[in-house]
Amino acid sequence: MISSEPAAQIPAQPSPPSLKKTPPAPFVWLVLCAAVATLAIWATSGSRTPSLTDPLISPASAAEQKEEKADKPAKKETGTAKPAAKKEASKKKADDEPAEIENPFPRRIKLEGTELDGGIDWLNASGPINLKDLRGKVVILDFWTYCCINCMHILPDLKYLEHKYPKELIVIGVHSAKFDNEKDTENIRRAALRYEIEHPIVNDAEMKIWRGFGIRAWPSIALIDPEGYFCGTDSGEGHRELLDEVVGRVVAYHRAKGTLDETPVKFDLERNRVKPGALRFPGKVLADEASNRLFITDSNHNRIVITTLDGKLLDVIGNGTAGAVDGDYKSASFFRPQGTELVGEKLYISDTENHLLRVVDLATKKVTTLAGTGVQAQFRASGGALRKTALNSPWSLSHVDGTLYVAMAGPHQLWAHKLGSETISVFAGSGREDIIDGPLEESAFAQPSGIASDGKAIYVADSEGSSIRRVGLDSKTAVSTVVGTSELRGGRLFVFGDRDGQGLLKPNEPGNPEEVAGPLLQHPLDVAVHNGTVFIADSYNHKIKKLDVTKREVKTIFGTGKAGAGLTQLSEPAGVSATKGKIFIADTNNHRVCVVDLKSGTMTELKIDGLQPPPAPKEADATGDLKGVIDVAAQSLAAGNKLAFEVRLKLPEGYKLNKLDKVRYKLEASGEQALIAADQLRTRKAADEKEGVATFSIPLAKPSGEAKFLLSVSFSYCRDGVGGVCKLNTTRWNIPVKVAEDGKASSIQLEAVAE
Prior knowledge:
The chain is mainly beta. Helix 4 (149-164) runs parallel beside helix 7 (240-257).
């Protein structure tokens, strides 16, 4: 799916003319058409929001660039300079446009600087961020909501851009929630950890920033240039090439103009405060009574854990790294897998973020790839050869009579693979994101995230529509809704809540859950079928519920409706499996598996002795802006037992050291030396800091001698010391050192100057 479901029905605006110099390839053309088709309205002015396809202009439109120097009001006009500023611009060549590079956004709009106000909290940042903090950087605002599969799909594209333009680009996630549960900052924090997001996020719970930029769909992005001008928007997913081209042009223009700040930045990431645990956001569980085994999808550890039903560790499949490597248990890798299904001694796995189906031979302990290309399908495909057909976020699996059914969350469909065959294809769902009953090919799902079967039908947790669906497997196969919104006239993806009851929701007043009758769910992520009862992981209500299919009656059996970590509460449970009178729960945000006894109604936590987290990946040192090495005159120090340093940190006016970060140093030897032991070198350590002077010392291996060292000192600094965007500086020195009895200095004194 390329464009997202709109949050409101806003009249379509005229599309800008397409003026690319060369005709794009068919795929690119469809992407660009989708981007243009999702234009928003800028604030309430009635003016067209600039599109991110606007840089694709012909030389003929370059004349529009001159409008920026016209004497026009600042807000929502193309002018950038008032009369006084215009005179000043004539004095400064830096304000003139580069002779050979045109501004890719001549119709850009001057912002007031308060457009990021309105958020209730900030994450992955040491404080609130305003546009003044971002001046000099290309900024992408990513409007998202963490339930949304399309929003998940755009994250790899943003990470790609962040890594390609590490000094030029800042991405800010604007979390504008769809579901009530998503408005809570703690839940957003956990989503940021689950998706491993490395950029700042503002909780736009009241959607003030969303409305200010005229956004109307998830996901959408807005681009701001280094001078604080709004350039345009784009909606949907699958636009990496377009975004890369646009950011590249903006960077080139402002680098030539001298308005690009390429000083590295450092953010206070939430992950730095998290301790490792045995499980990390487990997504699904599968209990098999016949073999007394429990299969736990340890999603963010990229592995499958196998235990007995009482928690005895049996095996671990996968080495914990993100990848798609086949092989034995220790060499195989996955990327945030989700649902599993056991058929004999073969375990099928939804390798969700690899967009693959994997299969594990439990007898030989080998992992192979069953289906998918490893690349996300960008359009609604119909299927084909197993290894030549691209998949799109397979999320859950169910096996019935030799057929493996797949909840394909990305295109909002169910797929099917006849075991032993060489093909996979669509089974149900048109690809439209909605809750529509009817024949298989005409029905519509909304991000199906969990499936289970009683042998006669498949039950589907249709998460974005907060509904439970039924797909019959007999000759009269059709899709129906057991609980949910299918009978409403409109707003079927936006009616949700937490209410037990019976029957389908009545279409009294669509879009208002207070005015509809019937049971309400909130983003259910899984279902399990046991002894004729369907158990529901009502994820955003933090509950487990049971469904009597015949009566269409829903009752809560566990959970208080509020997130918690005790033995009476859950936190966004995403997986459920039932057997032997017990329900096994993937209590996702609590990083644990819980077991509810159906007879007593009590819950216990499944303890897995001996299970350890995989080794943490080694993170690259944050080195800041390396502008060469400073050669220092030979230092003569008095003999002693340590090499002491004092480094004065000189900051730009208006900046202070980041109070939430440490000054860090690393010492390396240049050539052979015996003055300092090898284990004291090449390790980044924290220094002491007081009144802008960093001090540290390294033990000497011998009281005297000579050596030459390379010293690196890194520190972050923010506007007023607590700003959400902190710059990062690293200064390096070549230092010849002689320690002798006749030496006079007690320490090496240096100065690091930040810009």
